[in-house]
Amino acid sequence: MLKYNLSYWERETFFKDFDVAVIGSGIVGLTAAMHLKILNPALQVAVLERGVLPAGASTRNAGFACFGSMTELLDDMTRMSEDDLLALVEKRWRGLQRLRNLVGDANMDFQMLGGYELFTDDDEDVFQECAARIPDFNKKIGAITGHQETYKVVSDRLPHFGFRGVNHLILNQPEGQVHTGKMMATLLHRAEAQGIQIFNGISLCRLEDSSRGWNSKPKPAGHYAYPGYW
Ligand SMILES: Cc1cc2nc3c(=O)[nH]c(=O)nc-3n(C[C@H](O)[C@H](O)[C@H](O)COP(=O)(O)OP(=O)(O)OC[C@H]3O[C@@H](n4cnc5c(N)ncnc54)[C@H](O)[C@@H]3O)c2cc1C
């Protein structure tokens, strides 16, 4: 929300009639904006972000580059068919590979260290169910990941990690970790390099139809904030 009028120079330089305004500069907003520019480089694209930096989950998550632990997959299967589950896993896997291609492993410290699922005494039945499904999942999910042994019981590593109260470990080998701060910084730089204009400190509160498209309302009526429309 701007608390002052824009100067002639500011209006001339930064504010124009944009073809598309993307709300939010998280991973989804930035990649959507970048994809639009790839599809049509002539499009004038703006990203409007309420925070000084991207202020959502994209810079606040755990940094797991994951596509499905054994218990997560079994839980998914209570709500969907196996075919749908495999299609979902493929989307997650391909999404991760596309992100790696877009950002570059080195730019986000991507490391394929694997993802571990921990099972305590209380989880014995769940662990047995997971362990029994591993050969089947390795065959079907291996066809997606290209890893023959995507899932593996590695309880022998427990002494190395030193977890207390944990009886079993299942490793998902092609999972990993990313530095999400570096990932988002790279995406911001790439988006700007593509000519996408990113505006921070703008919190959209409503959108209105107009004869020329959409008017976005950054603040309640009163103080003049933006010339024209987005
Ligand atoms: C605690 C936590 C841990 C997670 N851990 C992982 C993980 O380890 N691995 C993983 O893959 N995923 C993880 N996720 C999920 C992942 O972070 C999200 O799915 C992803 O970041 C969503 O991206 P997004 O762009 O849709 O949303 P966001 O990153 O939230 O982006 C939305 C943006 O829109 C802005 N915005 C919102 N409203 C407005 C408005 N009115 N006007 C202007 N701007 C606005 C926000 O400030 C924000 O920057 C985790 C999520 C959470 C919450």
Summarize the structure.
This protein has 230 residues and is α/β, with parallel strands linked by helices. It is built from seven helices and ten strands.
Give your account of this protein's structure.
The strands form 4 sheets. The protein has a 3-stranded parallel sheet with strand order 1-2-8, with helices on one face. The chain has 2 domains: 8-59 and 182-217, 3-Layer(bba) Sandwich (FAD/NAD(P)-binding domain), CATH 3.50.50.60; 64-178, no CATH class. It is elongated and about 70 Å long. It is α/β, with parallel strands linked by helices and 230 residues long. Helices cover 39% and strands 19% of the residues. Helix 2 (27-39) runs parallel beside helix 7 (180-193). Flavin-adenine dinucleotide is lined by residues 23-29, 48-51, 54-58, 60-64, 66, 202-204.
